[in-house]
Design a protein that fits this description.
By secondary structure, this protein is mostly helical. It has helices spanning about 5-10, 20-30, 35-55, 60-70.
Length: about 80
C-alpha cells in the first residue's frame, strides 16, 4: 500500500490553505479534486524533505563508501566484469 493510500484511509482533518487564485481557477476548470491535489503535493514535499534529511545525515558515510570503492574497488566483482 502506498503512502498516499495509507493517508487516504487515515482520519482526515480540515485545514485552510492559501493558493493563488489563478491556480485554483485552473484546477477547478479542469475538474480537479483540489483537496486530493493539495494532499498529494504535501505528501510529495514531505517525502522529498525526508530524502534530503537522510542524505544530509548520511553524507559522511556515503562519501567514505565512495572513497573506498574508488581506492579499492567493489567488495565483489560482478561475474560479467572482465577485470
Amino acid at each position: 500500500m502506498s503512502d498516499i493510500q495509507t493517508q487516504e484511509i487515515s482520519k482526515k482533518r480540515a485545514v485552510n490553505l492559501t493558493v493563488t487564485q489563478s491556480l485554483l481557477d485552473e484546477a477547478r476548470a479542469l475538474n480537479l479534486n483540489t483537496s486530493l491535489a493539495a494532499e498529494r503535493g504535501i505528501a510529495e514535499a514531505v517525502r522529498k524533505a525526508k530524502e534530503d534529511r537522510w542524505l544530509e545525515e548520511n553524507q559522511a558515510a556515503i562519501e567514505a563508501h565512495n572513497r573506498r570503492i574508488e581506492e579499492r574497488g567493489p567488495l565483489l566483482k560482478p561475474w560479467w566484469s572482465k577485470t
